[in-house]
Amino acid sequence: MATKDRITCHVLDTTAGRPARALRVQLTHTPPSAPDAGAPTAAATTPRTFESITDDDGRVKTWLPYSAATASGD
User: Fold this and answer.
1) Which parts of the sequence belong to the Transthyretin/hydroxyisourate hydrolase domain (predicted)?
2) Among residues 30, 32, 26, which one has the least CA distance to residue 73?
3) Residue 63 pLDDT exceeds 90
4) Can you give the pTM of this predicted structure?
């Protein structure tokens, strides 16, 4: 059994009444701004994006670094 990441996702296809399988999903974390903390580094303020594809139950259990919008997601 695969270990789940701390953030999971569950997608339901409400038109079909079942889990949405094989759906490519994306998660972006935008760090909060640090007021008056000096000049933050680019790495500290750059959003980080992850992606995955839902399994047969419509769930994402593991997030991968984002590749590109045109990549296959494999």
Assistant:
1) 7-72
2) 26
3) yes
4) 0.67
